[in-house]
């Protein structure tokens, strides 16, 4: 019997381990990558192609190498615990070479359409139309793994900021920020307090005249180095602590978390305190130092812009020369039109992977999740599960049960 053919869309971290898992299960994978190289989000480029998130030159990962590596390919011992993006790319290249993955990747090839075959109800097969060098090609696959992630389209909510159209300075999305030199001597407001927003604000504070960090809800700020100098995630993410979290009342857990995080610096005093678990935490070791030295000033949400200034919701007004919108990304899957529907940047998937109403479970999303820790081990486990489902070694619950689980998960996340 011929090996089942699997189309993999994207050759980033998730796409690479999806390739490896397919090969482990005796499947025949073909990975389509529209750029010229592997790495996805982690490949730094001054001028990235459209539809891909882009990092700045100085980015260092927020998870330790012990917690982010693939299970069957440890990161070299001489690599630092927290790696610069160039080291992450070096690791990905070593992984791809070791498992001979590159020969299964078709670079500079875009996926135009993924559609069910006429006999999908019985075969579960897909027709995948791709384009390379101006030529389109169609092929039939037994299953599809979507590994393009959720950092695709820069989210720039300009309509939420009255007066921006008359602002005389420059503004850009964090996707287009590469280094602090163009902002030397300027007064800059960074909008957004996610990882990118805080990183950029801290980096700019070394060269800009003044940096303002505007936030609507605040954020808990974690740090890479924990007790005794060990990596934070290595110290606090464990099966034992997960068991404790499941047994101890949420109010007690929240009290402990607040006490632990405020022991380093009082988030209320620094204008950063959110409701516990209300926002995804951010990671930065330097922000408190930049705030206490006055180089970064935390401000509330922006009410409106004038030609030369920003007016904040607390009534204060600051002259600014430039704006960096660290307002995140949105995602879409135009090549899957008719099969899945993205509403308000959400897509209903069973366990964040499987569309619940397909006649055959031959489509799965890998890495479309925002965990507290690293995405790489999660993508690997997702890929293992998906390939087992594709081979018929495991099944999925009835559609009604999957829909009920999706609704329950959504409700639980909303309560948090």
Automatic annotation (TrEMBL):
Enzyme Commission number(s) from the entry: 1.-.-.-
Keywords: Endoplasmic reticulum, FAD, Flavoprotein, Lipid metabolism, Membrane, Methylation, Microsome, Monooxygenase, NADP, Oxidoreductase, Phosphoprotein, Transmembrane, Transmembrane helix
Alphabetical list of Gene3D superfamilies matching this protein: FAD/NAD(P)-binding domain (3.50.50.60)
Keyword Ribosomal protein on entry: no
Catalytic activity: hexan-3-one + NADPH + O2 + H(+) = propyl propanoate + NADP(+) + H2O; (2E)-geranial + NADPH + O2 + H(+) = (1E)-2,6-dimethylhepta-1,5-dien-1-yl formate + NADP(+) + H2O; sulcatone + NADPH + O2 + H(+) = 4-methylpent-3-en-1-yl acetate + NADP(+) + H2O; hypotaurine + NADH + O2 + H(+) = taurine + NAD(+) + H2O
UniProt keyword annotation of Protease present: no
Membrane topology, from the record: Single-pass membrane protein
SUPFAM superfamilies for this protein: FAD/NAD(P)-binding domain
GO CC terms, sorted: endoplasmic reticulum membrane
Pfam families associated with the record: FMO-like
Leading EC class: oxidoreductase
Cofactor(s), by name: FAD
Any GO MF annotation of the entry: flavin adenine dinucleotide binding
Localization per Swiss-Prot or TrEMBL: Endoplasmic reticulum membrane; Microsome membrane
Gene Ontology biological-process entries: lipid metabolic process
Family that this chain belongs to: Belongs to the FMO family.
Role noted for this protein: Acts as a Baeyer-Villiger monooxygenase on a broad range of substrates. Catalyzes the insertion of an oxygen atom into a carbon-carbon bond adjacent to a carbonyl, which converts ketones to esters. Active on diverse carbonyl compounds, whereas soft nucleophiles are mostly non- or poorly reactive. In contrast with other forms of FMO it is non- or poorly active on 'classical' substrates such as drugs, pesticides, and dietary components containing soft nucleophilic heteroatoms. Able to oxidize drug molecules bearing a carbonyl group on an aliphatic chain, such as nabumetone and pentoxifylline.
Protein name: Flavin-containing monooxygenase
Organism in which the protein naturally occurs: Geospiza parvula
Taxonomic lineage from the root: Eukaryota, Metazoa, Chordata, Craniata, Vertebrata
């Amino acid at each position: 019997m011929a090996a089942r053919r699997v189309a993999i869309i994207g050759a980033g971290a998730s796409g690479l381990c999806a390739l490896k898992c397919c090969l482990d299960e005796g499947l025949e994978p073909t990975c389509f990558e529209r750029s010229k190289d592997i790495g996805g989000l982690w490949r730094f480029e001054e001028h990235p192609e459209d539809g891909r998130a882009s990092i700045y030159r100085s980015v260092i990962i927020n998870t330790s190498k012990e917690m982010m590596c693939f299970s069957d390919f440890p990161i070299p011992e001489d690599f630092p615990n927290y790696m610069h993006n160039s080291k992450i790319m070096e690791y990905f290249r070593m992984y791809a070479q070791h498992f001979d993955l590159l020969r299964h990747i078709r670079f500079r090839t875009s996926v135009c359409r993924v559609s069910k075959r006429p006999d999908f109800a019985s075969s579960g097969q897909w027709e995948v139309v791709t384009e390379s060098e101006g030529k389109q090609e169609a092929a039939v696959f037994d299953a599809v793994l979507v590994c393009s992630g959720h950092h695709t389209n820069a989210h720039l909510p300009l309509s939420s900021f009255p007066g921006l159209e008359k602002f005389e300075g420059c503004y850009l999305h964090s996707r287009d920020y590469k280094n602090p030199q163009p902002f030397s001597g300027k007064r800059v407001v960074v909008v957004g307090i996610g990882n990118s927003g805080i990183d950029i604000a801290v980096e700019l504070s070394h060269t800009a005249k003044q940096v303002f960090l505007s936030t609507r809800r605040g954020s808990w700020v974690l740090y890479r180095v924990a007790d005794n100098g060990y990596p934070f995630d290595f110290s606090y993410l464990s099966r034992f602590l997960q068991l404790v979290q499941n047994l101890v009342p949420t109010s007690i857990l929240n009290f402990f978390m607040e006490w632990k995080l405020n022991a380093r610096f009082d988030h209320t005093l620094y204008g950063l305190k959110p409701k516990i678990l209300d926002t995804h935490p951010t990671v930065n070791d330097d922000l408190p130092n930049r705030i206490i030295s006055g180089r970064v000033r935390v401000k509330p949400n922006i009410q409106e812009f004038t030609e030369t200034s920003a007016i904040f919701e607390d009534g204060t007004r600051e002259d600014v020369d430039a704006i960096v919108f660290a307002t995140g990304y949105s995602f879409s899957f135009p090549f899957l039109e008719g099969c899945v529907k993205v509403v308000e940047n959400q897509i209903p998937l069973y366990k964040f992977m499987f569309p619940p109403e397909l006649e055959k479970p031959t489509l799965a999303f890998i890495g479309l999740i925002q965990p507290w820790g690293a995405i790489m081990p999660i993508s690997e486990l997702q890929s293992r599960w998906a390939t087992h489902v594709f081979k018929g070694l495991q099944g999925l619950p009835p559609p009604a049960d999957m829909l009920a689980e999706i609704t329950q998960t959504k409700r639980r996340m909303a309560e948090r």
